[in-house]
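FORM 12-B: Structure-to-Sequence Request
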């Protein structure tokens, strides 16, 4: 039944209750120069057919460039069935399953999601997702500080710049001290001159592959701090773990990552998916929802939200985190994607991306004025230094229908996914070659 929430009489009653005779009297405190006294100039409403045509005309102005941009968000192929299944109404409109007995479907797929993230990362336990990779990094640092009661955080200089920004925002009001580790000449984090004798470090955050695509050695770092209270936080694109040694096998205590690459679109920056998994000893410190599996009195499998006494809606200010929800629909898409691809499918797309990336790096390195900074030890992303203005190079590429990312005046970060092909790469290389 249609309902108009505020009739003319109801408006009069509200104004009278507030002590006003009219709406104009109610807003009389607003300066006259701020009020709009003329019609907005909005046309009459359109029919559905007219609206679709209008929106199509607007969308035709978009420049759908071929993307070689990465830096934490990647133009990956999403199988059609992921869109179809995730758009089913029972998934699309579901909310946090507080009432377990009527939410078994939602709880089961979240449990499966957790299991897949544990399998991928080699860790013992995962939560039911966080907001995005950046918030996951911040939550991991807070978890570590709450665990060892220390407040000093060491971060790699090659950690994603957006992650650093969000981490600093959280740290500012939590009395967490952030220090940047030095850069090595090899595009990796250097630990040569770091004093660890005071045992005052809460966590060390290392991304691998890092922001410029280089693979870091988590095991080496873990061995260096094994006798300290510090926790090692490993950050990565989860798809790369199909061909790299997973963080749980490298001494990492907390794994976090951005799950956009697991069946989710770029979509103007979100919604994305924060991944987190931990060693078993940290499970009671992990933020967000955890779904557990059990049996009922009849021996049937059942799923429920578990360990909820950690959470904000119960412990309030004593909760381990302010996170009180999860990216359920995006986690579902990740679960569907991982189910479809399997471990072998993930390996194949990474091997394809890697093959294309090394081919492209080799071709760019032949061009005068362009140098691939690190010619090996990457998967699908690499740094190019140019003698030209990087912004100018990017603009010229854009005019030709190619998107690349300048990250400084003379540096370009290139990412190659399985959606790219040799013809596209050769075309972009030609644009570089002809740049004057």
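FORM 12-B RESPONSE
SEQUENCE OUT:
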């Amino acid at each position: 039944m249609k309902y108009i929430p505020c009739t003319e009489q109801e408006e009069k009653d509200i104004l009278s209750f507030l002590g006003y005779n009219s709406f104009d009297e109610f807003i009389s405190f607003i300066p006259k120069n701020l009020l709009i006294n003329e019609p907005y100039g909005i046309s009459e409403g359109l029919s559905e057919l007219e609206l679709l045509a209008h929106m199509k005309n607007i969308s035709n102005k978009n420049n759908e460039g071929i993307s070689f941009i990465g830096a934490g968000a990647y133009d990956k192929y999403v199988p059609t069935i992921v869109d179809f299944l995730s758009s089913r109404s029972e998934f699309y409109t579901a909310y946090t399953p507080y009432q377990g007995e009527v939410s078994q479907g939602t709880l089961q797929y979240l449990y499966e999601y957790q299991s897949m993230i544990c399998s991928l990362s080699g860790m013992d336990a995962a939560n039911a997702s966080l907001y995005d990779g950046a918030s996951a990094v911040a939550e991991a640092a807070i978890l570590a500080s709450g665990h060892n009661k220390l407040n000093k955080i060491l971060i790699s200089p090659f950690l994603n710049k957006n992650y650093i920004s969000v981490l600093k925002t959280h740290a500012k009001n939590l009395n967490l001290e952030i220090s940047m580790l030095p850069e090595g000449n090899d595009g990796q984090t250097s630990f040569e001159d770091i004093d660890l004798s005071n045992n005052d470090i809460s966590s060390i955050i290392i991304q691998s592959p890092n922001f410029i695509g280089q693979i870091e050695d988590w095991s080496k770092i873990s061995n260096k701090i094994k006798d300290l209270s510090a926790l090692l936080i490993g950050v990565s694109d989860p798809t790369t773990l199909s061909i790299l040694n997973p963080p749980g096998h490298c001494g990492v205590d907390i794994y976090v990552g951005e799950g956009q690459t697991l069946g989710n679109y770029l979509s103007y920056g979100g919604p994305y998916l924060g991944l987190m998994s931990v060693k078993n000893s940290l499970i009671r410190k992990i933020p967000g929802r955890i779904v557990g599996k059990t049996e009922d009195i009849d021996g049937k499998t059942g799923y429920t939200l578990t360990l909820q006494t950690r959470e904000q809606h119960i412990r309030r200010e004593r909760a381990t985190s302010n996170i009180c929800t999860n990216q359920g629909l995006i986690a579902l898409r990740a679960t569907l994607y991982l189910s479809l691809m399997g471990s072998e499918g993930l390996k194949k797309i990474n091997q394809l991306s890697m093959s294309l990336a090394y081919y492209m790096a080799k071709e760019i390195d032949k061009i005068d004025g362009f140098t691939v900074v690190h010619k090996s030890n990457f998967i699908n992303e690499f740094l190019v230094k140019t003698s030209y203005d990087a912004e100018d190079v990017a603009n010229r590429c854009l005019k030709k229908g190619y998107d690349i990312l300048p990250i400084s005046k003379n540096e370009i970060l290139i990412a190659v996914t399985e959606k790219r092909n040799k013809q596209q790469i050769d075309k972009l290389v030609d644009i570089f070659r002809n740049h004057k």
